[in-house]
Amino acid sequence: MTPRARAVGRSFADVYDALYDNPIFIARRTDFILAALGASDGLLLDAGCGTGRQIDELQARGCEVIGLDLERQMLTIARRGGIAAPLICGDLRRLPFRAAFTGALCLESPLAYLLDDDEFMVALRSLRRALVPQGRLIMDTYDYAGTFWPESMGRMRAEIGPVRIVESHSYDEQTRVWTMRQRFAMDDEGRTRRFQVTHALKMRTPNEYAAALEQSGFEVREMLDGYPNLPEKRIVVVAVAR
């Protein structure tokens, strides 16, 4: 992965960029992605690309990638960090592509942010339309309920690079919505900048993801509880467009 310039602490996108500055994780996930894509050398879509760290690694390995994210500030940070790929501000539910990609990535839980099941299905069908027949979708989502509920709830503190984090989690078993509240502090030129963010994510089971993908025109090829050689618990899916 090429070195990244970063303006620390000026927006939540900068905080996000610092949190995902994990070259070992990204390199090992890229190993998995390239193996799952097989011999395909076509155009890839990173749908929900954030600040582009996964794109950075894929380009370093010779892949041609287009990035898409709903948040303009994320794309601004990606460009500032030197990402040369085309970057588009857009919505998973309304991808402006049809049969354009041999592979699509949907990483770091963007599908879980779609709490409404109908909207979730719209996004899956949109991803299917963006792929050529036999194109591959690789998606992952955090399994918060499987990791934390109910034993490990409460406040957690962490320090990742320049970011200090205090977060709390709660889970509504009826709606199956996981709420994570995060408070960040980052030192920036002698000043501490603080951000607060609340995330709400729908907890779906691996079987539910598989069924929704099948209904949306995919065939599920792999369903894992994490990436090989990485300890973090996630739902990881590889599916092929029919």
Describe the structure.
The protein has 242 residues and is of the alpha/beta class. The protein folds into 2 domains: 12-142 and 204-241, Rossmann fold (3-Layer(aba) Sandwich), CATH 3.40.50; 145-201, S-adenosyl-L-methionine-dependent methyltransferases (N-terminal domain of TfIIb, Single Sheet), CATH 2.20.25.110. The protein is built from 7 helices and 11 strands. It has helices at residues 12-19, 23-37, 53-60, 72-80, 117-130, 144-148, 206-215; strands at 43-47, 64-69, 87-89, 101-106, 131-142, 154-160, 163-172, 177-188, 191-202, 218-224, 234-241. The strands form 2 sheets. It has a 7-stranded mixed sheet with strand order 3-2-1-4-5-11-10, sandwiched between helices. A hairpin with a 2-residue loop joins strand 8 (177-188) and strand 9 (191-202).
Topology:
Blueprint: H1 12-19, H2 23-37, E1 43-47, H3 53-60, E2 64-69, H4 72-80, E3 87-89, E4 101-106, H5 117-130, E5 131-142, H6 144-148, E6 154-160, E7 163-172, E8 177-188, E9 191-202, H7 206-215, E10 218-224, E11 234-241
Parallel strand pairs: 1-2, 1-4, 2-3, 4-5
Antiparallel strand pairs: 5-11, 6-7, 7-8, 8-9, 10-11
